[in-house]
Design a protein that fits this description.
The protein has 16 helices and 18 strands. It is an alpha/beta fold. It has two domains: about 140 residues, START domain (Alpha-D-Glucose-1,6-Bisphosphate, Chain A, domain 4, 2-Layer Sandwich), CATH 3.30.530; about 300 residues, NAD(P)-binding Rossmann-like Domain (Rossmann fold, 3-Layer(aba) Sandwich), CATH 3.40.50. The strands form four sheets. A seven-stranded antiparallel sheet has the order 1-7-6-5-4-3-2. The chain has a seven-stranded parallel sheet with strand order 10-9-8-11-12-13-17, with helices on both faces. α10 crosses α12 and α12 runs parallel beside α16. The longest helix has 22 residues. The protein is globular.
């Protein structure tokens, strides 16, 4: 059996700068917080033995007592480093590869565990090493990037991109990609905590030092991702929380933007395809959202209404579908029951599910910021206004659950009638409408702009997540 995970990130840095950090194995914990300690017994050459221990206290202690040393099995200076550690009946192999591409470097991390206990060791040893890859890369960039002097001419400096709600999954994904591409990034944070990004304190609703600081920035781009997770029971109190956590920060940002001497250059305002309500019909950006749909659709309507596009020179409202990725919380929500044999269709199974792979969402967000979708790709110019950030091929719930069963390796699953799902939602602390409502959003604007999806089909998206 084999467990494996591969992920890549492009850096606007020469391979040599990244190699200086990667080749000092003792610095591994500096960019991967899952590693508590690491080191080599001698100089870095093939055959050198070394050790590492997880940062988690109990696993780290167990690893130090029982795990054998790893061996450096391959070294190609400036290009490739492979570490191999024996496991019962097999081994764990960690590979870091650097490939010069598009004026920078593509960094690829591969972790492979083989042997009869590969799946068990994958969960306990492999997953922590690969989790949060975007943030790992942001830390690696900070360690490898040379200290530079800002341009003397403020007008010549690149725009500062500020992310509100940037500590969540999508914010970390976008902030890390921008940082690794050489852009200046800052997060607006209610409770600053250690991390790879500069943070600016704010309360998410009133003006203060944060708005004065942003007002003094010559060139500014804003990405507003603020909002509590939608995945909670649809009580009146929770709906009020969801609304306030989106509307208040949006209004605060709009108010702050009006005090600036220069307009915000680019504003990317997050929204959700849930604004289209429960419908079997395909909805692109030309479709008028229903004005009377209750629940989450009403929350999203108020969220969009709080945004004033005149606050920026260019503004995009990203109506985002469910974003799929290994690190996204929604994946564990989808796969958890399926692993236990409850991966049958939900409700009738006929309801539509709109989705987008994280790699494509990231490319859409970059395009909305006026950047190329990814290194080496042609720029896509998006018009101002609403953009459905969703795959061109939504699927019905029956197909979604079939892919999930295949993904977790459990070929059969018990269906869950709507009544049972609603009854269990309170115990599971979730909103059954997220699974039972039919949302069939399609990306008309992206299609017209010539946007090329890497993962237009759900099967390909699940294959990538399992790679």
């Amino acid at each position: 059996m084999t467990w494996h995970r591969t992920a890549s990130q492009w850096f606007n840095l020469p391979a040599g700068a990244l190699w200086e950090v990667l080749s000092e194995v003792r610095r591994w914990p500096e960019w991967n917080p899952a590693v508590g300690e690491a080191g080599l017994g001698s100089a870095l050459t093939e055959g050198t033995r070394g050790h590492y221990a997880p940062a988690q206290r109990l696993l780290g202690a167990l690893h130090r007592r029982t795990a054998p040393a790893f061996t450096v099995t391959q070294v190609e200076p400036g290009r490739r480093l492979v570490l191999r550690q024996p496991q019962p009946g097999g081994a764990q192999e960690i590979e870091w590869a650097l490939t010069e591409r598009d004026g920078g470097t593509l960094f690829t991390q591969r972790v492979v565990i083989d042997g009869p206990l590969a799946q068990q060791f994958g969960l306990t040893a492999g997953e922590p090493l690969v989790r949060g890859f975007a943030a790992q890369c942001a830390r690696l960039y900070q360690l490898a990037a040379p200290a530079g002097n800002p341009a003397d001419d403020a007008a010549a400096r690149p725009a500062l991109t500020v992310l509100a709600g940037g500590s969540g999954y999508l914010g970390t994904l976008l902030a890390a990609d921008l940082l690794c591409s050489g852009h200046e990034v800052a997060l607006l944070a209610r409770s600053p905590r250690p991390g790879p990004f500069r943070q600016i304190l704010w309360d998410g609703r009133s003006q203060g030092p944060w708005s004065a600081e942003l007002g003094a920035v010559q060139r500014l781009a804003l990405v507003n991702l603020s909002g509590a997770s939608l995945d909670r029971p649809a009580t009146e109190a929770n709906l009020a929380l969801l609304r306030d956590s989106r509307v208040a920060p949006t209004r605060a940002l709009v108010e702050a933007s009006r005090t600036r001497a220069r307009p915000v250059e680019r504003w990317v305002q997050l929204s959700a395809v849930g604004i289209y309500g429960d419908s079997q019909e395909p909805m692109d950006e030309r479709a008028a959202p229903p004005t009377d749909a209750p629940g989450l659709a009403a929350v999203v309507r108020d969220w969009e209404a709080a945004f004033d596009p005149s606050a920026a020179a260019r503004a995009t409202v990203l109506r985002t579908a469910v974003v799929l990725d290994r690190d996204a919380a929604v994946l564990s929500r989808l796969t958890g029951p399926a692993r236990l044999g409850a991966g049958g269709h939900l409700g009738t199974g006929e309801q539509w599910f709109s989705w987008i792979h994280a790699a494509d969402w990231l490319r859409v967000a970059r395009a909305a910021l006026g950047l190329v979708p990814s290194a080496g790709e042609a720029a896509v110019e998006l018009p101002d206004g609403v953009v459905n950030a969703t795959s061109p091929q939504p699927v019905q719930n029956r197909e979604l659950m079939a892919h999930i069963r295949e993904f977790v390796g459990v070929p059969v699953g018990i269906p869950a009638p709507a009544g049972l799902l609603r009854a269990a939602a309170g115990v599971l602390r979730t909103n059954p409408d997220l699974a039972l409502d039919s949302v069939r959003a399609v990306p008309g604007v992206l299609k017209d702009a010539g946007f090329d999806f890497r993962y237009p089909q759900l099967a390909a998206a699940f294959r990538e997540m399992g790679a």
